[in-house]
Amino acid sequence: MSDTSLSGVAVSPGRASGPVVRVAEPLGEPASTPAPADPAAEAARIAPAAQVVAARLEALAATATGEAATILITTAAMAADPALVSKAEQLVGTGRLPAAKAVYDAAGGFAEALAAAGGYLAERVRDVQDVRDRLVAELLGVDPPGVPELTAPSVLVARDLAPADTAGLDPAKVLALVTEEGGPTSHTAILARSLGIPAVVAVRGLLALDVKALAVDGDTGLVEPADPDAPAVAAVASGPAEWDGHGRTADGHRVKVLGNVGSVTDASAAAEAGAEGVGLFRTEFCYLDAPTEPTVSDQRAAYAAVLAPFHGKPVIVRTLDAGADKPLAFLDQEDEPNPALGVRGLRVAFDRPEILDRQLAAIAGAATDSGAEVSVMAPMVATAAEAAWFAERAAAAGVPRAGVMIEVPAAALAADQILEVVDFVSIGTNDLAQYTFAADRQLGAVAKLNDPWQPALLRLVERVGAAAKATGKPAGVCGEAAADPLLALVLTGLGLTSLSMNAAAVRAVGASLAGVGMAQCEAAAQAALAATDPAAARVAAKAAITA
Predict the structure, then answer these.
(1) Do 353 and 479 reside in the same domain of the chain?
(2) Which residue in 248, 364, 474, 500 could disulfide with 424, CB within 3.0 to 4.6 Å?
């Protein structure tokens, strides 16, 4: 490694080198002045601008496929969101702000709410900021932010990329993608993998590096200067072979390949991708922006719509994952000095079990309505006693199978005891990493600690896999680790029986499993466990697979 070499979190495999093209920084905060002479006329500019931005994103979505199309459609819906438009219009009137500044402030409020929600919802902050920047540009009459037109194959360098920008990348022209911010669970990482573009994120000091060409290693996370006069090189990992839709290794070892969903759109995308079922159904969408708790009938209808594409297939529904660090208006919780370690997830139900009971009743009803084979699991479980309490309430509500999330190190260490009182467990590697390494998963400065290839994290996964084997019960992974085709083999070798991921990764992971035997998975797992850092673990696992 040279003195000017940098490293980050490798999120999409492959190696490439070539000329650097920098993505321009966002426009920044618009001016608050001058105050509009006619506030009504100024406010009336916002809705048409939102429609223009939404239409552009919808046009991009029409040319995309899979996860890229889904994300573009979702971003377009954000741009036309009546709540955002209405809030901005109000700020023009009450704050006498220009339309661009009103949109900026309104979107800022939405972004702050998502950031406070934490976890998966906080990862959508970048989406809101992208919509904000596009709306502001439209109102100011300037070019929108985004990737410049590429005239030759290039290495893209950015502070971060909006999901809509990443979704629109042309793999024929983008040799590699490198960002200073972001993390392994970001949309940028997910989309780069789905497009087959080598990518490294959270590269601190990247933007200060003054070079004309870069070499990027999406396997190790190494980023270093390259010869600007050398021809561009791309050595992308080969695309996945055809997959028959049955999760198993080449020698027949069964591993379910499932989808992670949180909306009707997600469910449709997972079904179209060939997911064998759902390993994580996030139910928080039903509660967002709700001033009061949704009724059982409202919840039942909302859940049934998501479950519909999976008639006759297994679906694991996670009960409400909210609380002090993911505030919902109707919970009316007190402020806590350290909310990430406070009353969240299942802990909310200990004080208000009626909320959980109503949700379980709605889930049971939705299972009947949809014909899906529904199980439930609880988030933020730390002990076997908590797991047993949840299983009893699920049984009383008529849900036949109950499990829990393993996202707290204590739960991983007590997995054998927990599996004695529930039917299955599922590892949320995103939060398990966050709590194991005391590293906020939203903070780019500590993103390397949240790398799912961290050997210490894999050792906790190994313990859960051993407990599952000893008790004869299933243990899956529903964190972003399962979406990495190579890491999926390691997880299988550690004893996991199902892998659940975003729709874009389903076919690649299924094909990866089908191409190797169980002995190779076990060898890769042991090689990764013996490594001292994530980059070495990835290299060692790959060597074991190809040996």
Answers:
(1) yes
(2) 474
Name the catalytic one among 253, 286, 478, 521: 478
User: Is 478 assigned a catalytic role?
Assistant: yes
Domain of 311?
A: 256-546
Statement to judge: residues 117 and 164 lie in one domain: no
pLDDT in tens, 500-521: 998 888 998 999 999 999 999 9
Looking at the fold, whether 150 and 110 belong to one and the same domain comes out as no
- Asked if residue 94 and residue 74 are part of one domain, the reply reads yes
User: Which member of 187, 253, 286, 521 is catalytic?
Assistant: 187
Residues 18 and 56 in one domain: no
- Tell me if the pTM is above 0.85: no
Q: What share of the chain is helix, strand, coil (3-state, %, to 5)?
A: 50, 15, 35
pLDDT, residue 59, reads 87
- Would 459 be classed as within a structural domain? yes
- Predicted confidence (pLDDT) per residue in 526-542, tens digit: 999 999 999 899 999 99
Classify residue 28 as exposed, middle or buried by CB count within 10 Å of its CB (0-12, 13-18, 19+).
exposed
**Active site annotation includes 286:** no
Domain end (from 140, 156, 191): 140
Q: Residue 325 — very low, low, confident or very high, per pLDDT cuts 50/70/90?
A: very low
* Cβ-contact 485, 477 below 8 angstroms: no
Res. 137: pLDDT tops 60: yes
| DSSP conformational letter for 326 | B
One domain for residues 360 and 342: yes
**Do 386 and 531 fall into the same domain?**
yes
Q: Which of 115, 185, 120, 117 is nearest to 344 (CA)?
A: 117
Nearest to 330 by CA among 376, 378, 295: 295
In this structure, the answer to whether residues 431 and 498 fall within a common structural domain is yes
